[in-house]
Amino acid sequence: MWFKTIRQGSKYLAIFPVHPILGAVFPENRVQYALRWGRRLIPPFIAFILLWNYVQGGGLQGISFFYTQKVNWPSALLCIVTLVLILLHGYYWAGKRAALKLNPKLTLFYRQLCQALGKEPAPVPTMFDLARALHEGLEKLDPDFLRKL
């Protein structure tokens, strides 16, 4: 269930369009930006933590690698797990957000957008359905339809 939500969040953020008007209304653009930077910066931080753990344990002074890891390994592992969980939390939040049902105002906007696109709206629309419709609307329609938000 947890991994399914994370996978759904990844799909949701991949399909949610980046647009200045949408950025003012929805927090998804800011989350996308933060996760994009996180995917770039966290792997070097993990490498740095492992290297620092090795050096602080005396790894460059002739002591074997496995001997040094016993001293600092729990703190290094905790730091790495924390960094990875920060990224996973962003995708988990997005997955929970994707499953939210739309409020009445957004439901009306969603139905009007589906009508303009010539497609059948979902009976109980969610944020994921809205993201799909917005993505398709920005490809096919003039971006002025976003002003109705």
Automatic annotation (TrEMBL):
Pfam families to which the protein is assigned, alphabetical: DUF412
Membrane topology field: Multi-pass membrane protein
Protein known as: UPF0208 membrane protein YfbV
Family: Belongs to the UPF0208 family.
Intracellular or extracellular location(s): Cell inner membrane
Residues passing through the membrane, by range: 45-67, 73-94
Superkingdom of origin: Bacteria
UniProt KW S-adenosyl-L-methionine keyword: no
Species annotation: Candidatus Anaerobiospirillum merdipullorum
Keywords associated with the record: Cell inner membrane, Cell membrane, Membrane, Transmembrane, Transmembrane helix
Keyword rRNA-binding: no
Cellular component GO terms held in the UniProt record: plasma membrane
